[in-house]
Amino acid sequence: MTLATGTFRLWSSFCVVAFVLSLFAARLIQLQGIDENDYAALSAQKGAKTVTLEAPRAGIYDRNMVALAETVDASKIVADPTDAHDDAREIATILHRRLGADYIDTVTLLRKTSTRYVELVRHVEPEKAAAVVAYLHRSDYPGVYVDDDTLRTYPADDVAANIVGFLTDDGYGGSGVESKFEQILAGRDGSATFEVSADGQQLPLADSTVKQPKEGTGVQLTIDQDLQFLAQRRLSQAVRDSGGTSGIAAVMDVKTGQLLALADTPTFNPNQRKLSAPQDYGSRAVQDVYEPGSVEKVLTFAALIDAGYVTPRTKITVPAVLPRADSTIHDYFYHGTLRLTTTGVVAKSSNIGTVRAAERMPSRELYGYLRDFGFGAQTDVGLGGETKGLLPPPRNWLPITHDTISFGQGLSVNAVQMTAAVAAVANDGVYVQPSLVEGYVDDDGQVTPVAAPERHRVVSSRAAEQVARMMEEVTGPEGTAPDAAITGYRVAGKTGTAQRVDESCGCYDGSFTVSFAGFAPADDPRFVVYVVVQEPKDGGGGGTTGGPVFHDLMAATLQKFGVPPTGKRQPALPVSW
Q1: Which one from 294, 349, 363, 412 is the annotated catalytic residue?
Q2: 294 belongs to the catalytic site
Q3: How far apart (Å, rounded) are the C-alpha atoms in residues 519 and 496?
Q4: Res 261 pLDDT > 70
Q5: Are strands 327-329 and 338-341 parallel, antiparallel or unpaired?
Q6: What is the CA angle 252-253-258, rounded to 5?
């Protein structure tokens, strides 16, 4: 053999080996570098099955990280239609009666013999699912099994239900925080695609691809579960005792704008929501609007004092009635001519006295103050379906509009707006945007706080302090709400009674909204409590209906947060002259 021949053979062998190695390399690159979506499509062409890997839904917590909504292990009832289709009607009847499954949908799924896996009922308690499937097997209905699943539960039942919300049958947020923060809570589902045999079974060692699910992010609320429980129970009692139709109670931290409680009644239990009326699912505190009545006088007098039109001692003559154009303004109580100070006007909640004081301020200026107090704009508190209320622009005001708005009629608000506005007076004249969300919780339990709330000054510190002094007389012996007083504390408050509007005709329907708002300690305010009761039948007003609820909620809040009495009551301001 010549040298040339040996060299040729060596070179030929090298080329063959290199070619074989290149084939392996190309296959390796294909397997490792191909896009996962392309690979899934390729698998599907070969005969593949793709299943969804559901992302764990994150929890909703109160301010102390007590779970208000959480996801726990559960079961789902599944079936192999090739085994179960002959008994589809019988199985569907049993699942409907025992678990509420839709009969038609179940029959349709069980007759879908092109697949060997269908989900019949999801999110079932494990013991209940096992019992139902055992009953089916004893009844000789094959092809139905139990598989792993999850279940959304609400450990506190109806506590904060109107805030937290619920999940729909499809697993999406149906109301409240569950709906507003759906994308954050739900995370991102994953998937698994694998080759299957002709009978639908996964092939051992076959190609597969997995896209891992991403867990959701939890939401921590500002709500305190204990105060929320008390607010709901106490409010429900007041609505029931007064014969009212519904009610709202809010507890807010004056300095931070955080809502510590936001109660609705009637409410519902999200674990059994279908037992309640759908109109009870949402939060009336942001979705319902009403005319606030005399609680709004707090803001009118804050504006008047801040602009220099009156002082707490300004003398006002209050006639028995006040003719205005083609209308007549009355007070809620009958009286002859009264000689009241502005403090007395607030203490006795005189509409006529308020109009006489407010006529000194131009409409555009009053409108500007009310806008700064948050009226006519959404609070963006963290719940869906919020209304911005109604504050008509001053170009549309008639002279009577200026009058009625000054004492809380002719405009509409939601309860969170009103709470935040009164809190601005309590907070040295500074408005703080209200909030329900404290922060976001990662899967390690670490909380990332939300951004600081927006704040702006509405009235001067001096004006706010003077209005607070005036409001103290409301809870005094000559005021309209002595039941709101709390022993050992200085309490500022204001009652409200407003006519309700029938939306079908735009006219007053003869029923009323009664309310009470206040803060304590009046000389160093920490908390605001606002109580609203709709359509009471017992003839009570804001002082007798809302005042006692305020007392109980404020006393509990002061105690829970360890707020001591701050000082002796200053000499009373003159009520009359």
Answers
A1: 294
A2: yes
A3: 15
A4: yes
A5: unpaired
A6: 75
* Residue 82 or 313, more confident: 313
Beta bridge partners of 324: 327
Q: How many separate domains does the chain show? A: 2
Residues 129 and 249 in one domain: no
Q: 32 by DSSP, 3-state: which?
A: helix
Cis omega (within 30 of 0) on the bond before 204? no
Q: In what helix (H) or strand (E) does residue 534 lie, and over which residues does it extend?
A: strand 527-534
> Given pLDDT bands bounded at 50, 70 and 90, which one contains residue 115?
confident
Q: Which strands form 527-534's sheet, in the order they lie side by side?
A: 259-265, 246-253, 527-534, 507-520, 492-502
List alpha helices for 243-362, DSSP H.
Answer: 284-287, 297-306, 342-348, 351-358
- pLDDT at residue number 109: 94
Domain membership flag for residue 190: no
CATH number at residue 434: 3.40.710.10
Q: CA-to-CA distance for 43 and 38, rounded, in angstroms? A: 9
CA angle 568, 569, 573 (to 5 degrees): 155
Residue 276 lies in domain: 225-560
What confidence tens digit (pLDDT) does each residue in 160-187 have?
999 999 999 888 999 999 999 999 999 8
The DSSP call for residue 105 is H
The model's pTM is 0.85
Indicate if 318 and 409 belong to the same structural domain.
yes
